[in-house]
Write a structure and sequence with these properties.
single chain; alpha/beta; 6-stranded mixed sheet
Length: about 400
C-alpha cells in the first residue's frame, strides 16, 4: 500500500509538472527593447503605450497562446539594446522581439538572425535595416525615403527652386537628405547645401542662420521625433518664418507629441508623413480617443508602428495556429494587409518592408490646437531604395 501510495503521488507530481510545462509553453512572450529614458524617451513611451492598448482592446490570448509583453529600456544605447535583446532571447525565451531606433535595431538584428527569432521593427526609418542578411526582420514603421522623395516632388511642383537642407547627422538623416536631393534635382530644383546637425543635444540656431545666409526659398528639414519642438522654437527666433523661407520636411517635423506646444510659427508648414492624429477615418478616430483616454496625450506617427506591430504579431500567430518559431511567423507576416489607424498598409512579401500611404499635410488649427491636416494622398508607397 505504501509503495502504491508513493507511486500514485509520484504520478500526480509528474502530471502536475507536465501540466505546468504545457501551460508555460502556451505563453508567447513579446519582448520590446525601447528607449524609455533620455532624449528619445517619448519615442519608446509611444510604442509601449500603443502596444499595451492593442492588447487591452484585443485580449491577451491569441491562437491558444497567452500574450505576455516584456519591455526593456535601452536608453537609446545600441550596446544596451544588444545586451537586453540577448537576455530576452536566451533567458526570457521571447517568441518575438520588437526593435526601435535605427542604431538599436541594427544591433539587435544579428541576434534575431542567429536565434531565428521574429523581429518586428517598430520605429526605425532607415531603409538598410531591413535587408537580406537579417531575414527575420519585418518593418511596421516607415522609411524616410518614402516621405522624402514625395515631399521633394511636391515642393518642385509648387514653386520651390532653391532648397537648403538641415539634417540630423545619423543614418536616417543621411537617407532623408539623399533621397530628397535625388528627387528634387531630377525635378529641376537646386539643393544649395545639406547642413548636418549633431544628433545629441543639438542647438539648431547657428545652423539655421547658416541656412538663411544661403538665400534659399525653401528649407527641407529632418530631425528625429522629440527634437521638432526645439527646432520650431529656434526657427521662429531666427526669423526664418518671416523671411519668406518655406519650411517643409518629413512627418517627424510635426510630430503629434510635440506639435501642440510648438506655437503659431508652425502654421502653414507642409510635410510628407505616414500619420496624423487628425487623419479622417473611423479607425483613427477610435484609436485617438482610446489612446488619449489611456495616456492623456495624443498618439503620434511612432505609436502606429507599435499598434500595427502588435496587430502583425497577433495575425501571424493566428495563421500559424500558435506556432512561434521564427521562420513560420515571418512567412505568415509576408504579404499581410490590413486597415491601420494610418490607412491601408501591407508587408511587401519580397522585401519584408512596409507599403503604405504617404500624406501631404499642412499645419492648421483644429479646435484651437495645431494638427497636420492632410490635403493630398500618395497611395501604396514602397521604399524607393528597394524598388526594382
Amino acid at each position: 500500500m505504501l509503495r502504491s501510495g508513493m507511486t500514485t503521488a509520484m504520478a500526480l507530481a509528474v502530471g502536475m509538472l507536465a501540466s505546468a510545462g504545457a501551460r508555460a509553453e502556451e505563453v508567447a512572450k513579446v519582448g520590446l527593447v525601447l528607449p524609455l529614458t533620455g532624449g528619445s524617451g517619448p519615442v519608446g513611451k509611444q510604442i509601449e503605450a500603443a502596444a499595451r492598448l492593442y492588447i487591452q482592446q484585443h485580449g491577451d490570448t491569441v491562437a491558444g497562446r497567452k500574450i505576455e509583453l516584456v519591455v526593456r529600456d535601452d536608453a537609446s544605447v545600441p550596446d544596451n539594446a544588444k545586451r537586453l535583446a540577448q537576455e530576452l532571447i536566451v533567458n526570457q525565451k521571447v517568441s518575438v522581439i520588437g526593435s526601435a531606433l535605427t542604431p538599436s535595431a541594427m544591433a539587435v538584428g544579428p541576434l534575431s538572425t542567429q536565434s531565428k527569432t521574429a523581429n518586428v521593427v517598430m520605429v526605425s526609418g532607415t531603409s538598410g535595416v531591413i535587408n537580406p542578411n537579417n531575414p527575420y526582420m519585418v518593418r511596421t514603421s516607415f522609411t524616410l525615403g518614402q516621405q522624402s522623395g514625395i515631399i521633394a516632388e511636391w515642393a518642385a511642383k509648387n514653386g520651390s527652386k532653391k532648397v537648403a537642407i538641415i539634417q540630423s547627422d545619423w543614418a536616417p538623416g543621411a537617407e532623408a537628405a539623399s533621397v530628397f536631393t535625388d528627387a528634387f534635382t531630377k525635378a529641376g530644383g537646386q539643393v544649395l547645401e545639406a547642413i548636418k546637425v549633431p544628433l545629441q543635444n543639438p542647438d539648431f540656431a547657428p545652423f539655421l542662420q547658416r541656412a538663411r545666409d544661403l538665400g534659399p526659398d525653401t528649407l527641407f528639414v529632418f530631425v528625429p521625433a522629440g527634437q521638432a519642438g526645439t527646432f520650431a522654437k529656434q526657427f521662429a527666433e531666427r526669423g526664418l518664418d518671416k523671411a519668406g523661407i518655406k519650411l517643409i520636411g518629413t512627418g517627424d517635423l510635426i510630430d503629434d507629441n510635440d506639435l501642440p506646444g510648438m506655437g503659431d510659427a508652425m502654421l502653414g508648414v507642409v510635410t510628407a508623413g505616414i500619420y496624423s492624429a487628425a487623419h479622417k477615418s473611423q479607425a483613427n478616430k477610435d484609436y485617438v480617443t482610446s489612446f488619449k483616454k489611456a495616456n492623456g496625450y495624443r498618439p503620434n506617427f511612432i505609436s502606429v508602428g507599435g499598434w500595427d506591430g502588435m496587430h502583425l504579431i497577433y495575425e501571424a500567430l493566428k495563421k500559424t495556429n500558435g506556432a512561434t518559431d521564427g521562420p513560420a511567423l515571418v512567412n505568415a507576416m509576408k504579404g499581410m494587409k490590413w486597415e491601420s489607424p494610418r490607412g491601408p498598409i501591407a508587408i511587401d512579401p519580397e522585401t519584408r518592408d512596409i507599403i503604405q500611404n504617404v500624406y501631404i499635410d499642412k499645419v492648421e488649427k483644429v479646435d484651437g490646437e495645431l494638427y497636420g491636416v492632410e490635403f493630398a494622398t500618395f497611395e501604396a508607397v514602397k521604399d524607393p531604395l528597394k524598388k526594382k
